[in-house]
Design a protein that fits this description.
With about 400 residues, the protein is α+β, with helices and mostly antiparallel strands. It contains 11 helices and 17 strands. It has an 8-stranded mixed beta sheet. Strands 1, 2, 5, 6, 14, 15 and 16 form a 7-stranded mixed beta sheet that branches. The protein has a two-stranded antiparallel sheet with strand order 3-4. A hairpin with a 2-residue loop joins strand 11 and strand 12. About 5% of the residues have low confidence.
C-alpha cells in the first residue's frame, strides 16, 4: 500500500497535533503533582514543628528541641542572676512545658533536668520502682470494684436472670505538695564554673527521696500521701474485709524465726496477685531472713541470677526499703504484695516548680522547689503483711 506525499504530510500533521495535546495534558499533570508535593512538604514541616514542641520528634532538628535548649539556657541564667521572667515564661510555653501563663507559680525546671530527677528518684525509692505511677493534670480519681458481681451458666435459649452488680469504691488520694528549699551564696552563683543545674538536682533529689520514701510506706495522709502500712487498718487475714490490710502473725516479741509464717504470708495473696508478688523489707530484716533455712538445711533466699537482679525469697524477688519497720513487738516488718495493683502514685503533670528568693537572706539565694503528688492503697486485696507477736 502506497501513500501520496500529501497523505503522508496529513498523517504527520495529525500525529503532531495528537502528540502536542498529550504532551500538554502530561505537563499539566506534572504541574499538578509538583503543587501537591509542595503542599505535602508544607504539611510535613508543620507536623515536625508540632511534634518537636511535644518532644516527639526524631533525632534531627525540631522547633521543640531548639526551644528546649533556649529554655534551659534562659533557666540557668535566671537561676544565677534572676530577671528575664517574661522571656523565661515564653520559652516554657514554646518548649511545651506549659500552656498557661502563671506568674505566681514559679518556673518549671527544664525537661531534661526533670527527667533526670525522676530517674534518680526511681532508682532510690523502692515504692516508685514497685508501685503504679501515673501522670495526672488534676485530682486523681479511679473507681474500683470491691467485688460482689455474680453470674452463672445458662443454655442458649434459657432466660438470663438479673445478677448482682459489683460494689464500687472511689479511689481518690488527696494531692499533697512536697518542697525543698536549698540555699546558695550569690558569690557561688556568679562563678561561671559552678554547675547550678547539677547542684539544684542534687539538693532536690536528696530531700524529695527522703520525704517520698517515708510517706509511701507510713504516711498518714495529712498533707502527705497515705502509706502502704497503716497500723489502724491492720486486721488478721482470716477476718479481712475490703478497706483493711490483712496480716499473718509470725515471730515472737523481737524474734522472726518462723519459716511457716513466711509461706503463709505468701499464700495469703490470691493466686492472681501472688504471681506478681514482691517481698518488701528493710536491710536489717533481710539479714535475718537470709540466715533462715528449710528442714533440709537449704537457705530460703537465693541470689539474683543476673547482674543487678534482686535476691529471691521462696521464688519471689526481694526489694529493700529502710523505711520499713525493724523486727519488734507488734511491728509489721515484711510485706508481700502485687504492688502494681496494691499502690498507686499520682504525679502532677506540672512537675517541679522553682521560686527564686534573693531577699530573705542577704548575700544568699534560696530556691523554693515544689512538686505535687498523691499516693495510696488502690487495691486492699493485693497487699499483705507479716506481724511480729507482742
Amino acid at each position: 500500500m502506497s501513500y501520496t506525499q500529501s497523505e503522508v504530510q496529513a498523517i504527520i500533521d495529525e500525529f503532531s497535533k495528537v502528540s502536542a495535546e498529550s504532551r500538554g495534558k502530561l505537563e499539566n499533570r506534572i504541574d499538578g503533582c509538583d503543587k501537591t508535593i509542595e503542599e505535602l512538604h508544607a504539611q510535613i514541616d508543620s507536623l515536625e514543628v508540632i511534634l518537636g514542641r511535644r518532644g516527639l520528634g526524631g533525632g534531627g532538628w525540631s522547633a521543640g528541641a531548639e526551644s528546649a535548649k533556649e529554655h534551659k539556657a534562659a533557666f540557668n541564667s535566671w537561676a544565677r542572676q534572676g530577671g528575664n521572667d517574661v522571656e523565661l515564661r515564653r520559652l516554657e510555653v514554646a518548649a511545651g512545658l506549659s500552656t498557661v501563663n502563671d506568674p505566681d507559680g514559679g518556673f518549671l525546671v527544664p525537661d531534661e533536668m526533670a527527667k533526670e530527677i525522676d530517674r534518680l528518684a526511681t532508682e532510690s525509692v523502692a515504692m516508685r520502682r514497685l508501685a503504679k505511677v501515673v501522670k495526672v493534670q488534676g485530682e486523681y480519681k479511679r473507681p474500683l470494684s470491691k467485688g460482689g458481681a455474680t453470674g452463672g451458666w445458662v443454655s442458649e435459649l434459657a432466660d438470663r436472670p438479673e445478677t448482682a452488680s459489683p460494689e464500687l469504691d472511689l479511689f481518690q488520694p488527696m494531692m499533697a505538695e512536697i518542697y525543698a528549699m536549698p540555699s546558695v551564696s550569690q558569690k557561688l552563683l556568679d562563678m561561671s564554673d559552678f554547675d547550678v543545674e547539677g547542684w539544684l538536682m542534687d539538693e532536690i533529689h536528696d530531700v524529695f527521696v527522703e520525704k517520698e520514701g517515708a510517706a509511701f510506706i507510713s504516711g498518714d495522709g495529712v498533707g502527705k500521701p497515705s502509706g502502704i502500712l497503716d497500723a489502724d487498718k491492720m486486721v488478721a487475714n482470716a477476718s479481712w474485709t475490703y478497706g483493711k490490710t490483712g496480716f499473718i502473725a509470725g515471730g515472737h516479741a523481737t524474734l522472726l524465726n518462723s519459716v511457716d509464717a513466711l509461706i503463709d504470708l505468701q499464700h495469703a495473696l490470691k493466686p492472681t496477685y501472688r504471681k506478681n508478688g514482691v517481698w518488701l523489707m528493710n536491710d536489717a530484716t533481710f539479714s535475718v531472713i537470709r540466715k533462715m533455712k528449710d528442714g533440709d538445711g537449704r537457705f530460703l533466699t537465693a541470689p539474683g541470677l543476673a547482674e543487678g537482679a534482686p535476691d529471691r525469697l521462696l521464688g519471689k524477688p526481694i526489694e529493700i526499703d529502710d523505711n520499713m519497720p525493724d523486727i519488734g513487738a507488734n511491728a509489721y516488718p515484711v510485706a508481700f504484695c502485687d504492688f502494681q495493683k496494691a499502690y498507686t502514685i499520682a504525679d502532677h503533670r506540672n512537675g517541679i516548680r522553682l521560686i527564686r528568693d534573693p531577699y530573705t537572706a542577704k548575700g544568699s539565694v534560696r530556691f523554693y522547689c515544689t512538686k505535687r503528688l498523691a499516693g495510696g492503697i488502690s487495691n486492699y486485696e493485693a497487699v499483705k503483711f507479716l506481724k511480729i507477736a507482742a
